[in-house]
């Protein structure tokens, strides 16, 4: 491996390690959307292996979003069924290599990403991503 890819990996890891939790949440949404875009392009190119890999990565991200919810808060209890639905649609998209299902999930993720980005900006530094997902940053 040359120094450039290694340096990029170190830079990316440093970004994640030093990012505020609200920013990490937005980064997860960004990665999910990028993965969906790549999966849709792969389906168009008739590259099912790449589509599968990117859809599985997006499923993992949605599962992480679900696991980070703090169920003490109403907003988290409202988000859980949505995240479960998105995960289900991702599985369907993967099985059927369905661009329409990918587009549906992408639309939801873009909207959620914008909401969390706004919440993170309003909150400034948030002590934990869980609190951002719990909706504390949306108050006020």
Write structural notes for this entry.
With 140 residues, this protein is mainly α. It has a single domain, classed as Four Helix Bundle (Hemerythrin (Met), subunit A) (Up-down Bundle). 81% of the residues lie in helices and 0% in strands. The chain has helices at residues 3-18, 21-44, 48-67, 74-96, 99-123, 129-134.
In a nutshell, what does this entry contain?
The protein has a single domain, classed as Flagellar protein FliS (Four Helix Bundle (Hemerythrin (Met), subunit A), Up-down Bundle), CATH 1.20.120.340. The chain is 81% helix and 0% strand. The chain has helices at residues 3-18, 21-44, 48-67, 74-96, 99-123, 129-134.
Please describe the topology of this protein:
Blueprint: H1 3-18, H2 21-44, H3 48-67, H4 74-96, H5 99-123, H6 129-134
Helix pairs in contact: 2-3, 2-5, 3-4, 4-5
Jot down its keywords.
mainly alpha; Four Helix Bundle (Hemerythrin (Met), subunit A); disordered C terminus
Question: Strand share of the residues?
Answer: under 5%
Number of strands: 0
The average pLDDT value, as a whole number, equals: 83
- Helix content estimate: over 70%
CATH topology descriptor? Four Helix Bundle (Hemerythrin (Met), subunit A)
Number of domains: 1
Question: Helices and strands, in N-to-C order?
Answer: HHHHHH
CATH superfamily: Flagellar protein FliS
How many helices? The count is 6
- Shape designation: globular
**In angstroms, what separates the terminal alpha carbons?**
49 Å
CATH class: Mainly Alpha
CATH architecture grouping? Up-down Bundle
């Amino acid at each position: 491996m040359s120094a450039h890819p290694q340096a990029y990996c170190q830079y990316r890891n440093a970004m994640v390690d030093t990012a505020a939790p609200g920013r990490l949440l937005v980064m997860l949404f960004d990665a999910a959307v990028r993965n969906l875009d790549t999966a849709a392009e792969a389906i168009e190119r008739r590259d099912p292996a790449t589509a599968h890999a990117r859809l599985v990565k997006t499923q993992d991200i949605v599962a992480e979003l679900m696991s980070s919810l703090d169920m003490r808060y109403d907003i988290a209890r409202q988000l859980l069924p949505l995240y479960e639905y998105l995960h289900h649609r991702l599985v369907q998209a993967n099985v059927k290599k369905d661009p329409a299902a990918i587009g549906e999930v992408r639309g939801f993720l873009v909207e959620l990403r914008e909401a969390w980005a706004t919440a993170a900006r309003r909150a400034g530094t948030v002590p934990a991503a869980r609190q951002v997902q719990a909706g504390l940053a949306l108050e006020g």
